[in-house]
Amino acid sequence: MKRCPRCNIVYADHTQFCIHDGAALVNTPGADPVLGTLIAGTYRIRNRLDSGGFGSVYKASHIRLPITVAIKILGAAHALYEEMVSRFRMEAQAEAMFDHPNIVHVIDHGQQEGIGYYIVMEFLVGRDLGRRLAEEPPLDITQIGVVLTQTMAALQAAHARGLVHRDVKAENLFLVDDAQRPEGFHVKLLDFGLARLKSDAGWEVVVAERRHKTRASRAFGSPGTMAPEVAARGTVDERSDIYSLGAVLYEMLTGEMLFQTEDVQTWLRRILEAQPPPPSARPRGRWVPQALDALVAHMLAKDPARRPQSIPEVRQAVESIWPEVEAAWSREFFVNHRRPSDNLDRWGDLPSLARQPLTAEQTPTVLIVDDDRTIRVILHAIIGSIGFRSEGCENAEQAFAWFASHPAPTAVLIDLLMPDIGGVDMAQVLRAHDYDGLVVICSAMDATEFANAVPAVANTGYLDKRLDLHKLPAMLRASMQQLPRQ
After folding, report:
1. CATH 3.40.1000.70 assigned to 32-122
2. In CATH terms, is domain 126-336 a member of 1.10.760.10?
């Protein structure tokens, strides 16, 4: 067995060079014997992506088409146990039921001599939510909202088919890299291996060994997000998934799990008896408003009858409080003591953004930076009504790329809340690079509260999207008086 030292693709012993990058191959004593194997006569396994208690996941390529897939192979030790094989088959069958943008897609599954049981899935580029929470600063409120909303969409689709996931946790929410979205990712729900139909018809309940941020070796599902009724009786329905989703939301808000201990028995006892502190009582969650504390507590009720009874009910509750949640998050990070920012360093190589005088033939241009498509459409209409041109970007990254290839605009309208940086931070970057035009920060937050934070950035205005958009034409016309035409 030989391996490319650059891309780690594995080749047969007689091959000398990598066909992708031309590197000389090196011998790999004791290499994974699965590498290089042809699965189902179609998929060539190239390299291992991950290993866990269940087995391993590999990257593979279609031998006739330019298609990359992921192949999960059940570990040989687990293949000896009927319950583990049943769970593995369950995962393939359950995920194959869906063609949903937020549920991982299964292409094929089967059993092959020398390999054992396998599942062929779509290949995802990114990382799971658990790793994201561990490796980087906390998610901002926009990202939390995206994870919550898209996970609810996946669970609602599963529940509509009569399927309860039963193992919703951060590690089973994969954040797929997506440059087309302002937050940079979309969510895929993984691992239906513990799932079951509400009717139980044709599906086997699986009790499996799991690990979840603990050295404990055995638990039912994942103790970090397990509902009390699952821990006590093994009974599940949609409300069990709602509890688990509440536990994931708690972790996103606070950076901490509901309960954590090295002893699984103690952990399970706490699930049944202990009440976690509200998110606002945790250091990272001090900004969480009472309405969000109440929603989390509702989702985490010990008695399933006291929880929301369906995902649509949770969705309705989230939508009703989310403007207040965004305002509370913004109050904490944009007004009181915003997080330290490295934005000046991040975009330190930007050229000067100073404006040039307009000629008589040129039309003033306004750049809109807002991740809400509806708001961009409204602003385009308002700006066009006074004879100005407008361009739109979804986030600061796109906006600075636009600046690199266009003359500086007459004015810039920036959303206060954006996935990459906030509106105040972006205004500071513009000023640091000599932009001398009008900057208007727009938000649906209470203007009396946030407008006080804006004047710290010179020549920067604030507009309440709910009440003040009618003032925008006058602000733009006034900005023209500061830029004489040639």
Report:
1. no
2. no
Strand 2-3 versus strand 26-27 pairing type: antiparallel
Residue-wise pLDDT tens digits, 16-58: 776 566 778 777 665 677 888 888 889 999 888 887 657 788 9
Where in the chain is CATH 1.10.510.10? 126-336
> CATH 3.40.50.2300 occupies which residues in the chain?
345-480
Segment 289-313 shows an average pLDDT of 95
| Ranges of CATH 3.30.200.20 domains, the chain | 32-122
Scored b (16 or more CB within 10 A) or e, 189-202 reads bbbbbbbbeeeeee
pLDDT digits (tens, 9 = 90+) for 412-457: 999 887 766 778 778 888 888 888 888 888 887 665 666 665 655 5
Catalytic member of 128, 167, 191, 415: 167
Predicted confidence at residue 289, as pLDDT, reads: 93
pLDDT digits (tens, 9 = 90+) for 399-421: 888 888 888 898 999 988 776 67
167 given a catalytic annotation? yes
- Dihedral (Cα; 338, 340, 345, 351), 10-degree rounding: 10
pLDDT at 273 > cutoff 80: yes
Give dist(CA 250, CA 148) in Å, integer.
Answer: 11
Looking at residue 198, its amino acid is K
Q: Report pLDDT digits (tens) over 334-393.
A: 655 444 455 555 666 677 777 777 776 778 899 999 988 888 888 998 998 888 999 999
**For residue 14, what are the CA distances in angstroms to 24, 31, 39?**
12, 16, 20
What class has domain 345-480? alpha beta
Q: Which residue has the tokens 């309405």?
A: 291
